[in-house]
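Quarterly update from the structural biology core.
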Amino acid sequence: MNTPLRVSKGYGNQVKYAVLMPLFFFVFIFVYHPFGFVEFFDGIGGHTWQFHLLMLSCICVGVFAITRLVFSVLYKYIPFKWWHYVVWCAGEVLVCAFFMALYTALFYNKNGGLLYFNALTYCSNIAYSTLVFPFLILILMRVITNKNSDISEARKAPEETLVKFYDEHKRLKLTIDPSVILYVSADANYINIHYLENERIRKYQLRNSMKSFEADAKKHGLVRCHRSYYVNPRHIKVLSRDKEGVIFTEFTIAGVERIPVSKQYYDQLADLL
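Predicted structure, tokenized:
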């Protein structure tokens, strides 16, 4: 639950929630009538329970369309963990329940009307009891997809997928998965490899030059952003500019120092983000 969340970026990949969740809600309620839905809504405001079910489903469409838009924007800049995502999903359902309750309280006219908080309790029971199923299915599918991706990457030939770092005497010092490398920096006659190990930031130093690493960096997707730095674009969330106009990288991992970006390398790096 505390591992980084990996989902598809962009609103286009999230908009499916605005379709699948309301559709499941509509079909499930229509078929099973949980919590006495028919008796509770039939005749409210002179409309049938089918009408109110359709309206509540439309409320779900609107809520998920907005919340998924917000999520797709935040996901670009915030390193979500799985537990963050679970809390977010629970919050989306709660927002749906809030608006469903508002709709219900406004239209309910039996026995002198219905208090909003009573309606909220009822709508929360319906929303959480119904939408928990598609959420669990989609989360499970995402976990399986991520695991399959990891297994596929692990099955690739190590000679092709791992980065090998040699010292100035051509002795192998470090072999590492390029996906965990954050950046590589120069320090006089040394290079420092900054990488992730068990979600912690590590540094390995060896005696060699940045020039000797240039071919391997290009091969494994690391990009030069400064004469003293190579960075891994997959761990960069945004490029920012300070008051003096100097451009820096902002990493998705908390605790990683900002890396300067030279103007000559800016366009190449920006195109990869």
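The radius of gyration is 26 Å.
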